[in-house]
Amino acid sequence: MANEKKMEEQIKDIPCSTSLKSFQRNRYFYGKLLTVRDFEDEQRYFIEKQRLINRLIHGEGVVCGLKVEKVENKESFIRITPGVALDCCGREIVMPEPMEIDLSKKISLEDFGDEETITRWVTIRYSACGKEPVPAYSAESSCEETCCYSRIMEGYEIDILKEKPEEYFPSDEEICAVWPNPARVAKKVGPIYFERIMPKVVKKGERFKVTIKIKAMDDIPSLKIEEKLPPKLKVYGSSSFERKDVKKGEEFYHTYWIDPKDIIGKFDITGKILNIPNIPYLDLPGSSVETAEEPEIEKSKKFVEYWIKECPESSKEPAVLLASIKLRKRTSSSFEITEVDNAIIENGEFKKSLVFSNPRLYQLINCVEKELKAALEKDLPKITYINWKHDEEYDWFNEEDRRKFLNLLDKLTITFDRAMDKSTINHKTLNVFVIPYFTGKLEKFGNVEELIVEAEKIYLPVYFIPEDEKNQISFRVGYPTSNENRNKILKAYITNEPITTVYSSRVLKKWGLRIIECSKIIWRMFIQLKGDFVLDVNRNPLDANYLKAELPTGNGSPGGLFESWLNIKFDFNKIENTKKVINTNPGIDIEDIVENVKLTKETTQLILNALTKNKIIYFKEGKYYPLPDPRKTIIVYDGKYNYLEESAEKLKADLRDKGIIAEIKSSDELTEEDKSKYEIVLLRGKDIKSATAEKMREVESKVDWDKSKGDTEIVKNPYIENTNMFIIGGKDKRSIGAAIKKFLEYYKVKPQG
Q: Parallel, antiparallel, or unpaired: how do β-strands 724-729 and 711-716 relate?
């Protein structure tokens, strides 16, 4: 026994040290005598360096595991799961196997005194003991054999303490106060939880924002917040505000701006809560702002000053706190464990020391990033719902799609995440407009979409619908008439506008020297809400950016533009096909047109009305007739009679008044390219020049022009498939004038329906 005690005294483990010192290591050379001291120094060098890193870089606390829990069916037992901790000396404490502890052997009933419950603290501390004793060979003369431990086993001890051990690193809020900008102060004051968010350092003369967040902890009949600022500051907005009938759990924000003007240095902002029953006022926590010529430099200096403080030392007992346990006396001879608190919660915050590994730190940073994003988003109002599908396409020549689109225009709704100041959502901040595009194919480029340059942005009338919901606005697009009449007007208008846009240009859209064959017209309706000017009831601007077309809106910045759109598709081929049927069958009625184009009668009538209104065709006595294509019309006059040139110039001017820009040439100037490119309006007398007859020998006319007192004739165009040539003529100048007048009458005919 005495020998074992002597052996224990021989164990000299490396002591705990929390102060700084210089390190020295062994230098080896041939012939050097190595003693126990040299080998111990070798170990000490590496162990103490590792402990220094652990202590100052990783810190003290639980690394993983070491959960304290009750043991089922063993009332006075706790179990500690395997795990690893670092103590304040930087020593690793490893528990490889679970351990059960009988608290009845560590706590007596006398410890309760007069109390029914008591709290105890479970700690783990580093310990070392000798292992594997072996004989020690010595040159000294001795009759007694000496044994020594050949190994040191690093282990642990579990203690149950009456008092909570002191923290190695005291809670230091200074780093939180130094680095972030803006700074946040938060505190429960009376019936509210109060937060003020503002910058800590601002540039001299630069405005900054102050955001106040209030959460009611109880029902409050009347709440008034009054901020107190230095008199030299200029305030934009109100630094005081009042709310009535605030309900428990309700959150709201108030924002105002401060111009520090020429102030240099630090100033404070404080405040009071007023109107609390039976209390004159309650003081709010203060915030400090510092103005500087170069805020980022000042911020960096303060951070570095914090960082270069002296290294921490500790005078505490080197033990790691694992948990607090609550025990309750059951009988005069026993007690039970009522609660095990591994987080060690105090004032709503956990106080347990933890050591964060790099993977866990990475995960934690991700969590903080998400939480911060959520907090930033929460500070500003956002759009959470719209009752239309962004970028949806409607086929206007499909009756079901047309019905859906018109129903949607009857009530468009935008929902926000909070109550809004609806006076800020008006005709200045909410706009609905249309921009026409066409799509087609371009050789080597494939499908293209291009804005029709000749088209103008078309603003549509918006009428707001009264809504009881404070976080919702609804509006109607169109005209304020009965639904039946409104839909009739909208159908005609929406059909007409794209056709007007396409046929108002003389030629198809050009890219360089290439002509794109137009296959589809897109009437794109944009819905825009200007977030810079749209405010919630607390005067916070809307976070409006519709990023990735995902709701809720927002990128954490106030303002921005909410923009969504819907597409109405007009199949240009169906329009052209309708026109082609009339071109090839002048004088056709609507029933025969419907039969040919394979569309419903309503859709066909909408196209016919739009073509008539745009002077592409004309309607007479129940029949439809073609007119020259306004995009590619040329007036050709026969040069035999001088008055024909004068008549051609007059016809050109009259057509221009009707929106049709026509070329003009004499028959002598007409080329083969002209014949294959333009629809020809030919002005002729009772007979024609031989050159005209030669150039138009394929044209067959059935009118006796020698006797004509002024006629117009539609004949098949032999140069362009599915088009016509329009002949205007008579036996003399007067007859030509009458024919032109008759031809122009076709442009005055109103559409049907």
A: antiparallel
